[in-house]
Amino acid sequence: MNKKKASIRIQKSTGNVFADLGFPHPEKELLKAKLTLEIYRLIRKRDLTQTEAGKILGIQQPHVSALMRNRAGSFSVERLMDFLTALGQDVKITVKPARRRHGEVSVVA
pLDDT tens-digit profile of 21-48? Predict the structure, then answer.
């Protein structure tokens, strides 16, 4: 019996899963994911219901549910930052020269 081993192709990540998957504007998508994660953490830390969080954020419960499942696609980066300030967070944007050809976006909590 002749058994062939299946070959697995591995490709090194760029560090941005959205770029790796070919999304348009991957830096923006990664930023939205990171902001959404911070919103999720704050809501969980405060033990808020989705309805309570919706009142604070000014959105309906189904939209909070989407955020809690990391589905921020319909929200802009600006709106996500507004949510963070509504949750009592300061949002700081720092612009500095990039070390590489293309800059990167990061969220520090």
Answer: 888 888 888 899 999 999 999 999 999 9
Distance, in Å, from the CA atom of 52 to the CA atom of 64, rounded to the nearest integer, reads 10
> What distances in angstroms separate CA 24 from CA 20, 27, 53, 60, 105, one per listed residue?
11, 9, 30, 28, 15
Q: Where are the domains of the chain?
A: 35-94
Find the length of the chain: 109
pTM of the predicted model as reported, rounded to 2 decimal places? 0.78
Topology (CATH) of 35-94: 434 Repressor (Amino-terminal Domain) (1.10.260)
Phi and psi angles of residue 101, each rounded to the nearest 5 degrees, phi first: -60, -45
